[in-house]
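Quick one:
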Amino acid sequence: MGGSTSCARTPAMEIEPITLSTPRPVRRPTLVQRWDELTFLHWPVEPERVAPLLPAGTRPDTLDGVTYVGLVPFLMRGVGFGPGPGLPYLGTFCETNVRLYSVDGQGRRGVVFRSLDAARLLPVLVGRLTVRLPYRWSTMRLRRENDVITYSCGLRGRPAARGRTSRAVVRIGGAIAEPTRLERFLTARWGLHVSWHGRTVHLPNDHAPWPLHRAELLDLDDGLITTAGLPPMTGPPVSVLYSPGVAVRFGTPHRA
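Output:
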Protein backbone atom coordinates (compact mmCIF):
# COMPACT_ATOMS: atom_id res chain seq x y z
CA MET A 1 0.00 0.00 0.00
CA GLY A 2 2.25 2.86 1.21
CA GLY A 3 5.75 2.93 2.65
CA SER A 4 7.30 5.11 5.30
CA THR A 5 10.91 5.85 6.11
CA SER A 6 12.50 7.86 8.86
CA CYS A 7 14.26 11.17 8.38
CA ALA A 8 16.68 10.20 11.16
CA ARG A 9 18.63 7.08 12.08
CA THR A 10 16.31 5.32 14.51
CA PRO A 11 15.79 1.65 15.33
CA ALA A 12 13.63 -0.25 12.88
CA MET A 13 9.95 0.02 13.76
CA GLU A 14 6.93 -1.61 12.21
CA ILE A 15 4.57 1.08 10.94
CA GLU A 16 0.91 0.28 10.43
CA PRO A 17 -0.15 -0.13 6.78
CA ILE A 18 -2.18 2.52 4.98
CA THR A 19 -5.73 1.22 4.91
CA LEU A 20 -8.89 2.73 3.41
CA SER A 21 -10.77 1.87 6.64
CA THR A 22 -9.55 2.39 10.18
CA PRO A 23 -7.42 -0.33 11.80
CA ARG A 24 -8.82 0.84 15.17
CA PRO A 25 -12.65 0.87 15.04
CA VAL A 26 -14.22 3.27 17.54
CA ARG A 27 -16.70 1.40 19.72
CA ARG A 28 -17.58 4.15 22.21
CA PRO A 29 -17.25 7.58 20.62
CA THR A 30 -16.24 10.53 22.76
CA LEU A 31 -16.95 13.02 19.96
CA VAL A 32 -18.95 12.98 16.72
CA GLN A 33 -18.96 15.36 13.76
CA ARG A 34 -19.35 15.46 10.00
CA TRP A 35 -16.82 16.83 7.52
CA ASP A 36 -18.43 18.09 4.28
CA GLU A 37 -17.30 19.85 1.07
CA LEU A 38 -13.59 19.25 1.68
CA THR A 39 -10.70 20.19 -0.54
CA PHE A 40 -7.26 18.68 0.12
CA LEU A 41 -4.29 20.72 -1.13
CA HIS A 42 -0.83 19.21 -0.56
CA TRP A 43 2.79 20.19 -1.12
CA PRO A 44 5.91 18.03 -0.61
CA VAL A 45 8.44 19.09 2.01
CA GLU A 46 11.68 17.65 3.36
CA PRO A 47 11.05 15.75 6.63
CA GLU A 48 13.86 17.55 8.44
CA ARG A 49 12.18 20.92 7.82
CA VAL A 50 9.03 19.97 9.72
CA ALA A 51 10.37 17.47 12.29
CA PRO A 52 10.90 20.19 14.97
CA LEU A 53 7.22 21.17 14.65
CA LEU A 54 5.87 17.75 15.67
CA PRO A 55 4.95 16.66 19.22
CA ALA A 56 7.49 14.79 21.30
CA GLY A 57 7.55 11.07 20.57
CA THR A 58 6.52 11.46 16.93
CA ARG A 59 8.40 12.01 13.68
CA PRO A 60 7.39 12.89 10.12
CA ASP A 61 5.55 10.14 8.29
CA THR A 62 6.98 9.84 4.81
CA LEU A 63 6.17 8.28 1.48
CA ASP A 64 9.23 7.52 -0.65
CA GLY A 65 11.32 9.75 1.61
CA VAL A 66 9.03 12.79 1.37
CA THR A 67 6.44 14.20 3.77
CA TYR A 68 3.71 16.73 3.04
CA VAL A 69 2.06 19.96 4.16
CA GLY A 70 -1.72 20.04 3.81
CA LEU A 71 -4.18 22.93 3.52
CA VAL A 72 -7.72 21.60 4.01
CA PRO A 73 -10.78 23.89 3.97
CA PHE A 74 -14.22 22.35 4.58
CA LEU A 75 -17.62 22.64 6.26
CA MET A 76 -17.93 21.14 9.74
CA ARG A 77 -21.41 19.92 10.69
CA GLY A 78 -23.08 18.57 13.80
CA VAL A 79 -20.26 18.52 16.35
CA GLY A 80 -21.37 16.73 19.51
CA PHE A 81 -19.95 14.92 22.53
CA GLY A 82 -20.38 11.21 23.16
CA PRO A 83 -22.39 9.22 20.62
CA GLY A 84 -24.35 12.31 19.58
CA PRO A 85 -26.47 13.65 18.09
CA GLY A 86 -24.42 16.68 17.21
CA LEU A 87 -25.50 20.28 17.63
CA PRO A 88 -27.25 21.56 14.48
CA TYR A 89 -26.30 25.27 14.88
CA LEU A 90 -23.38 25.70 17.29
CA GLY A 91 -21.80 22.54 15.87
CA THR A 92 -21.88 23.70 12.24
CA PHE A 93 -19.27 26.10 10.84
CA CYS A 94 -16.56 26.52 8.21
CA GLU A 95 -13.03 25.45 9.08
CA THR A 96 -9.58 25.44 7.46
CA ASN A 97 -6.66 23.46 8.84
CA VAL A 98 -2.95 23.39 8.12
CA ARG A 99 -1.56 19.94 8.87
CA LEU A 100 1.46 17.68 8.85
CA TYR A 101 1.79 13.89 8.91
CA SER A 102 3.24 11.93 11.80
CA VAL A 103 4.02 8.46 13.10
CA ASP A 104 4.62 7.57 16.76
CA GLY A 105 6.76 5.00 18.56
CA GLN A 106 4.01 2.39 18.31
CA GLY A 107 3.81 2.78 14.54
CA ARG A 108 0.49 4.62 14.52
CA ARG A 109 0.13 7.11 11.69
CA GLY A 110 -1.60 10.41 12.34
CA VAL A 111 -2.15 14.05 11.58
CA VAL A 112 -0.59 16.97 13.43
CA PHE A 113 -2.54 20.21 13.15
CA ARG A 114 -0.41 23.34 13.01
CA SER A 115 -3.49 25.57 12.90
CA LEU A 116 -7.26 25.21 12.74
CA ASP A 117 -9.26 28.28 11.76
CA ALA A 118 -12.96 28.07 12.58
CA ALA A 119 -15.82 30.52 12.07
CA ARG A 120 -17.61 29.87 15.39
CA LEU A 121 -16.14 30.98 18.73
CA LEU A 122 -17.54 28.29 21.07
CA PRO A 123 -15.95 25.32 19.23
CA VAL A 124 -12.67 27.26 19.13
CA LEU A 125 -12.69 27.67 22.91
CA VAL A 126 -13.73 24.06 23.55
CA GLY A 127 -11.09 22.70 21.16
CA ARG A 128 -8.32 24.77 22.74
CA LEU A 129 -9.29 24.00 26.35
CA THR A 130 -10.15 20.30 26.07
CA VAL A 131 -7.95 18.72 23.38
CA ARG A 132 -5.37 21.56 23.33
CA LEU A 133 -5.67 21.96 19.57
CA PRO A 134 -4.37 25.22 17.99
CA TYR A 135 -7.81 26.61 17.05
CA ARG A 136 -8.19 30.26 16.02
CA TRP A 137 -11.42 32.23 15.66
CA SER A 138 -11.58 33.46 12.07
CA THR A 139 -14.01 34.81 9.52
CA MET A 140 -14.76 32.14 6.97
CA ARG A 141 -17.05 31.54 4.03
CA LEU A 142 -17.72 28.66 1.66
CA ARG A 143 -19.56 29.38 -1.59
CA ARG A 144 -20.42 26.76 -4.20
CA GLU A 145 -21.66 27.47 -7.72
CA ASN A 146 -22.26 24.27 -9.67
CA ASP A 147 -18.91 22.45 -9.67
CA VAL A 148 -16.80 25.41 -8.43
CA ILE A 149 -16.18 26.01 -4.71
CA THR A 150 -14.63 29.16 -3.24
CA TYR A 151 -13.24 29.04 0.29
CA SER A 152 -12.19 32.25 2.05
CA CYS A 153 -10.69 32.74 5.51
CA GLY A 154 -9.23 35.62 7.53
CA LEU A 155 -7.84 35.77 11.06
CA ARG A 156 -9.77 37.93 13.53
CA GLY A 157 -8.83 40.52 16.05
CA ARG A 158 -5.03 40.75 16.01
CA PRO A 159 -3.30 43.65 14.22
CA ALA A 160 -0.24 41.47 13.54
CA ALA A 161 -2.47 39.10 11.63
CA ARG A 162 -3.84 41.65 9.19
CA GLY A 163 -3.55 40.39 5.65
CA ARG A 164 -3.10 36.80 6.90
CA THR A 165 -5.88 35.37 4.80
CA SER A 166 -6.57 32.40 2.58
CA ARG A 167 -8.67 32.12 -0.56
CA ALA A 168 -8.92 28.99 -2.67
CA VAL A 169 -11.08 28.36 -5.74
CA VAL A 170 -11.48 24.75 -6.87
CA ARG A 171 -13.34 23.01 -9.68
CA ILE A 172 -14.63 19.53 -8.79
CA GLY A 173 -13.82 16.77 -11.25
CA GLY A 174 -14.74 13.13 -11.66
CA ALA A 175 -14.96 10.54 -8.92
CA ILE A 176 -11.87 8.43 -8.18
CA ALA A 177 -12.48 4.69 -8.35
CA GLU A 178 -9.04 3.65 -7.07
CA PRO A 179 -6.91 6.21 -5.14
CA THR A 180 -3.19 6.27 -5.83
CA ARG A 181 -0.60 5.48 -3.14
CA LEU A 182 -0.11 9.17 -2.54
CA GLU A 183 -3.85 9.88 -2.34
CA ARG A 184 -4.29 7.11 0.21
CA PHE A 185 -1.29 8.34 2.20
CA LEU A 186 -2.68 11.89 2.40
CA THR A 187 -6.30 11.09 3.23
CA ALA A 188 -6.49 7.70 5.01
CA ARG A 189 -5.49 9.06 8.41
CA TRP A 190 -7.04 7.35 11.41
CA GLY A 191 -6.03 9.62 14.26
CA LEU A 192 -4.20 12.75 15.33
CA HIS A 193 -1.20 13.40 17.53
CA VAL A 194 -1.38 16.30 19.97
CA SER A 195 0.53 17.53 23.03
CA TRP A 196 -1.87 17.25 25.96
CA HIS A 197 -0.97 18.15 29.56
CA GLY A 198 2.72 17.65 29.00
CA ARG A 199 2.56 14.42 27.02
CA THR A 200 1.78 13.38 23.48
CA VAL A 201 -1.43 11.45 22.85
CA HIS A 202 -2.93 9.72 19.84
CA LEU A 203 -6.67 10.41 19.38
CA PRO A 204 -8.20 7.80 17.03
CA ASN A 205 -11.00 8.49 14.57
CA ASP A 206 -13.27 6.27 12.51
CA HIS A 207 -15.28 6.96 9.35
CA ALA A 208 -16.27 5.35 6.08
CA PRO A 209 -13.65 5.28 3.28
CA TRP A 210 -13.27 8.69 1.69
CA PRO A 211 -15.33 9.32 -1.45
CA LEU A 212 -12.71 11.23 -3.45
CA HIS A 213 -12.84 13.29 -6.65
CA ARG A 214 -10.15 14.78 -8.83
CA ALA A 215 -10.12 18.57 -8.57
CA GLU A 216 -8.51 21.53 -10.29
CA LEU A 217 -7.12 24.48 -8.36
CA LEU A 218 -8.27 27.61 -10.19
CA ASP A 219 -6.87 30.20 -7.77
CA LEU A 220 -4.99 30.27 -4.46
CA ASP A 221 -3.85 33.16 -2.29
CA ASP A 222 -2.82 31.75 1.08
CA GLY A 223 -1.14 33.15 4.18
CA LEU A 224 -2.24 30.48 6.68
CA ILE A 225 0.61 28.08 5.96
CA THR A 226 3.26 30.62 6.95
CA THR A 227 1.30 31.80 10.01
CA ALA A 228 1.37 28.14 11.12
CA GLY A 229 5.18 28.31 11.29
CA LEU A 230 5.87 26.56 8.01
CA PRO A 231 8.00 27.71 5.08
CA PRO A 232 6.05 29.24 2.17
CA MET A 233 4.96 26.79 -0.49
CA THR A 234 6.36 28.39 -3.65
CA GLY A 235 5.00 26.02 -6.30
CA PRO A 236 1.55 24.63 -7.06
CA PRO A 237 0.26 21.74 -4.94
CA VAL A 238 1.17 18.27 -6.19
CA SER A 239 -2.22 16.89 -5.13
CA VAL A 240 -5.66 18.52 -5.32
CA LEU A 241 -8.60 16.40 -4.17
CA TYR A 242 -12.24 16.99 -3.27
CA SER A 243 -14.62 14.96 -1.12
CA PRO A 244 -18.34 15.48 -0.49
CA GLY A 245 -17.67 14.33 3.05
CA VAL A 246 -17.92 11.68 5.76
CA ALA A 247 -19.44 11.25 9.25
CA VAL A 248 -16.68 10.89 11.86
CA ARG A 249 -16.42 9.34 15.32
CA PHE A 250 -13.50 9.98 17.71
CA GLY A 251 -12.42 7.50 20.35
CA THR A 252 -10.45 7.68 23.58
CA PRO A 253 -6.93 9.19 23.48
CA HIS A 254 -3.95 6.94 24.19
CA ARG A 255 -0.46 7.98 25.17
CA ALA A 256 2.07 8.07 22.34
